Amino acid sequence: MMKSVSQPGVASALLALGLMSTPVLAQRDQGQQPPDQSQPGQASQSEDQQQTQAFMGKVVKSKGGYVLRDDASGTTYKLDDADSSKHFVGKSVKVVGMLDLTTSTIHVVSIEAGS
User: Fold this and answer.
1) CA 20, 22, 25, 30 torsion: positive or negative?
2) Does 41 map to a domain?
3) 99 backbone dihedrals φ, ψ, rounded to 5°
4) What is the pLDDT of residue 41?
5) What's the rounded Cα separation, in Å, for the pair 103 and 99?
6) Of all helices (H) and strands (E), which one includes residue 106?
7) Residue 79: is its pLDDT beyond 80?
8) What is the mean pLDDT of the chain?
9) Is residue 38 part of a domain?
């Protein structure tokens, strides 16, 4: 039959060993941030990784701004750079930018005459 021995010193030593290893783990992981968290004031990873695309179409004046109309598909995209867009009204262009799918807006990087 085994006799249960209660030794507070052993329990305290085990607890101390466990607590001592915690700072080592924290130091090793320090500075690493899980991918799904972002710092305040910083864009999320999906926004950071958003890629520019090329869009072909004709610039058309629309209510309060300019849109790019893709004649092949009939799709229109709002252009967020009115200053650049107004020079190409009625012309076929290549727009390079990032598409915001929620608003169908192209955040324009550049516009050039299409070929």
Assistant:
1) negative
2) no
3) -90, 125
4) 44
5) 9
6) strand 105-113
7) yes
8) 74
9) no
CA distance 51 to 41: 20
Helix (H) or strand (E) holding 75: strand 75-79
Mean pLDDT, to the nearest integer, of 86-108?
94
**Domain-embedded: residue 82:** yes
What one-letter code names the amino acid at 11? Answer: A
pLDDT exceeds 80 at position 42? no
For residue 37, give Cα distances in angstroms to 42, 44, 114.
10, 8, 41
d(CA 115, CA 113): 7
CB distance 59 to 90 below 8 Å? yes
Total-model pTM: 0.56
Residue 92 amino acid letter: S
Longest dimension (CA), the chain: 96
Q: Which residue has the tokens 């192209």?
A: 106
- For residue 72, the domain's CATH number is 2.40.50
Please check whether residue 107 lies inside any domain of the structure.
Answer: yes
Give the chain's domain count. Answer: 1
Identify the H or E element spanning 105: strand 105-113
